[in-house]
Amino acid sequence: MKLSIIIVNYNVQYFLEQALLAVRRAAASIDAEVWVVDNRSSDGSVQLVREKFPEVQLIDNQDNVGFAVANNQAIRAAAGAYVLLLNPDTVVAEDTFGKCLAFMDTHPEAGALGVRMVDGAGRFLPESKRGFPTPWVAFCKTFGLSALFPKSKLFNEYHLGYLAEYDIHTVDVLAGAFMLLRRAVLDKTGLLDETFFMYGEDIDLSYRIVQAGYKNYYFPNTTIIHYKGESTKKGSLNYVRVFYQAMITFARKHFRGRQASFFVLMLQLAIYFRAFLTLIINVLSRIRLPLLDAAVMYVGLCGLKIFWAHYYYKDPDYFKDHMLYFNFPLYTMIWVLTLYFSGAYDDSGNLRRLVRSIFIGTVLIAAVYGFLDLAYRSSRAIIVLGMAWAIAGTAALRMLWHFIQYKNFDVGRERAKNLVIVGTIAESERAEKLLQQAQVQKNLLGVIAPNSDADDPIFLGNISQLQDLAKIYDIEEIIFCSKNIENHQIIACMHTLGTKISYKILPEDSQSIIGSSSKHTAGELYTIDIRFRIADPRQRRSKRSFDVLFALFIMITLPLQVFIIKRRVGLLSNLYEVLRGRKSWAGYAPPVSPTGHLPHLLPGILSPLDGLPVADVQASTVQRLNFLYARDYRLEKDWVIVWKGYRQLGRTAATRHG
What we know:
By secondary structure, the chain is of the alpha/beta class. It is built from 21 helices and 18 strands. β2, α2 and β3 form a beta-alpha-beta unit. α5 packs parallel to α10 (257-311) and α11 crosses α12 (351-371).
C-alpha cells in the first residue's frame, strides 16, 4: 500500500462529503486507502460515509477523543508507506497526491511534507509554512509584531513570511490540515502526542521529525483549499484558551530551565492578553450599532430639550438638569432594549421592524412615565418628539452605514449578487434548483461552459473566457459544478480572478453548495436541509428571556410555590441552574438522538412529553416531538409545556412524568 489518507471529522458533514469526493478523484490512480475517524458527530456524518463512501475505512468513536488520539487510531491500523493527515474542510487537486508522493520518493531526507493552502476566497494561508514557536517567535505572534511586519525575518519567523510563497523550502513546522508523513519516520519518532487534544500536535510532531534528523518540506507545486473555521471558531475565547494551552504543553515538553520558565510565563500572560483582546473585539462588534443608536437618541433628546424650552415655554432654563442624567438615559435604554429584544439588531436593514420597535418602546416609556414621581415627569411632548427623532435618526444611521458598504440607499432590500454557474446544462439546472429550494436570492446571469470548446449560444461563454466574462457581467459569485470541472481548475480560477468574487462548489451528487469567504468565519452553505426556528437568534433570545423572567417570578412567589411544586429542594437547584444559563425550563425530551440533526439546546427541566395522557411513548415518537419542537418553535410552546408540567418544576433528573 502506497498511501493511507486519514481524516478526523467532527460535525462538518457537508465539508467532509466534498473532501472525500476530492480524495476519491486524487487517489484514483494510486494504491491508496482512506480512513475517516469520526469523533461522535451529531450531524449525520457517519451515515454519510457509510452510504456514499463504502470504500472508506470508518472508525466511529463514541466520544470526542481529540485530534491526536483519533489520528493515531487510524495510523496504527493503516498499511500505507506514506500517511497523510488531512482535514475534512479541505479540497485537494487531482494531481496533489501524485506530485507529493513523487517528491517524497526522490527526497529520502524528507520526513514530512506540506503544500500551499488557500482559503475559500483564494487567499494564501500563511500557516502553510511555519517556524518553531521559540519564546521570541511566540512573543512576536502574540503581540502582533508578525502581522505588522509580515515579510520580516526578525518579526515573522512564525509564518516564515520572508520565504517565497511559490518556492520549495525546508521549514520547521507543517500544518496538520495537510501533513504527508513517511511511515518509516513515524516508526522512528513515534505517533502524535496524545497529550494535545487539539492544536499543537502538528508543531510537536514536526519538531520531533527534525530532531530525528529528517527535513520538513513546504511544497507549493500543488495547491489545496482549506476552508478553516469549520471545526472551531477562531474568534472564540475557547479557541484562545485551547491554542495557547497547547503552546504551553509544547514548551514544557521541549524546553528546559529558564527558557522553559520564561516561555511558559509569557504564554500564560498571552492567554490573558489575547483573551481580553478577543473579548473586547467580540463585545464591540456586538454593541457597536446599539451604542451608535444610543448616542443618536441621547444627543437628539438633548437637542429637543433645548428646542422645546425655547419654542414652547420661551424659557431656556425651563427643564431641570435631571432630564440629562435620569430621563434621557432611561428613555434611550428602553428604546435600545426594545430594538434588541424585537430582533432589530439581527436584521439591521429592516426599517419596518425598527419603526415598530421604537413605537413599542415609546409605549413602554409612557407606561413608566406614569409611575415616576411628579418631579421626574418632565414632558410628554419630549417623549413624542423623541420617538420621531429616534426613528429618523436610527434610520438615517442605517442608511449611511448601508451607503458606505454598498454605495446605494436600498436599506432592507439587499441586492442579489450577480451569479454565474460553471457547469453543464444538467448540473447548472441542478444547482439552480438547489438555490430555489434553499430560498437563496441570487441574480443568475447565466451558465459558463466547463470546457473551452463549447460554442452553444445557451452559454455566456466558456471557462477559458471567465476572467473577461467576470469584468463584462460584473460577476460577484461563481458556483463551480465539480462534476464537470476538476478541482485544480477551480483553484486556478480562484487564483486568476482574485478575492473580490465569492466562490462556491457544488459537489457531485450532493445536496449542498459549499463555500467560505474568510478563514476566520464558518463556511457558507446553501442546502435544502430543514430550517429550525429554534436556531434563529431572536427565538433563542426570547427563550432565554422567558427562562430568566419565569425564574424571577418563581423566586418572588416562592412561599406559594412550595405548596404547589413537588421536590422543593430540586426547585431551588433548578432556579439556580436556569439563572446560571446551565438549564432551561423547557427543552428536548430525553433521550435526544445523537444523529437527529437538531440544534443544540440547554438541558430542559420539562419537555414536550410532559402532560401527555399516555404513559409509554415509543422512541420514534419522542424524536418526532423533539423535531417538531425545534422546527416550529415559538415562545408559546414553552408556556404550554411549563403550564402542563408545572408541578414537576422541581425535577432534577430528565425523566418522563405523565
